[in-house]
Amino acid sequence: MTFPRERLGVDAETAARNLIGALLVRGTGPGAPAGRIVEVEAYIGQQDRASHARFGRTRRNAVMYGPPGVAYVYLVYGMHNCLNVVTEPAGCPAALLVRAVEPVSGVAQMREALLRGALTRAERAGEAAAERARRAERRVAATPVSRLAAGPGLVCAAFSIDRGHDGVDLCDPASELRLELVDAEPLPVATAPRVGVDYAPEPWRSRPWRFFVPGSPALSVPVRP
DNA sequence: GCAAAGATTTGCT
DNA sequence: GCAAATCTTTGCC
């Protein structure tokens, strides 16, 4: 069943809890990558000094101002894509960063995609390229299934998500990238401060807007005490 | 126009 | 445990 937009068009903290446990699906067919979202972070409003919306509306963050359920994809550190799900009613710039997904199916395609990325990086290494490529191959093959999408950059790499998906409607069952509602017992949700936002002043740095399934083997970085 | 930093991951010391 | 990789976006001259 496709994910109801109403579950995202509410306040961001409620939407974050709603999004935990949802299925993220890329493409169609039996080998299509799919996995359960087990960790997200909320970025809420222009006043949030950790959010891309803190500068007001720009070309990059424009979709954050639009309707909920749409993908906001951006590039960080010049090399990693990050997937967000726009939340709150249209007009309020807010998004949920998908930090970790536990693979459910399509694992082979995920490994292929991760390896493609690693090989591209290895090629640029020049003379050490061949050695790097071998290491990348071993590393990807040795990575446990639960760790394949255990980080915001890894989610995009494993699911082949890039900025071409910016603006895609994740609630449309016809979309290449979409969300599905899982008919199961709701997962427990814990909170913690967000990761990698030390540049932001208080109180934004310490807001407990990281939402995750405690004990999941697919979480990104360890939870800060 | 140019300098600086970033919602990360990887590999080496 | 730390630094490099890499390039877009933002801020300031």
Provide a brief overview of the structure.
The chain is an alpha+beta fold. Helix content is 20%, strand content 22%. The chain is built from 4 helices and 8 strands; from the N terminus they run αβββββαααβββ.
Overall description:
The protein is an alpha+beta fold and 225 residues long. Helices cover 20% and strands 22% of the residues. The protein contains 4 helices and 8 strands, in the order αβββββαααβββ. It has helices at residues 12-19, 107-123, 129-142, 152-158; strands at 23-26, 34-44, 71-76, 80-86, 94-105, 177-180, 190-192, 210-212. Strands 1, 2, 3, 4, 5, 6, 7 and 8 form an 8-stranded antiparallel β-sheet that branches. Strand 3 and strand 4 form a beta hairpin. It is globular, with a radius of gyration of 17 Å. It binds a DNA duplex (13 and 13 nucleotides) through strand 3, strand 4, helix 3 and helix 4.
User: Any idea what the radius of gyration is?
Assistant: 17 Å
Mean pLDDT: 95
Tell me the β content: 15-25%
Number of helices: 4
Q: Distance between termini?
A: 37 Å
Number of strand elements = 8
Shape: globular
- Portion of residues within helices: 10-25%
Name the poorly predicted regions.
none
Order of helices and strands: HEEEEEHHHEEE
Structural class category: alpha+beta
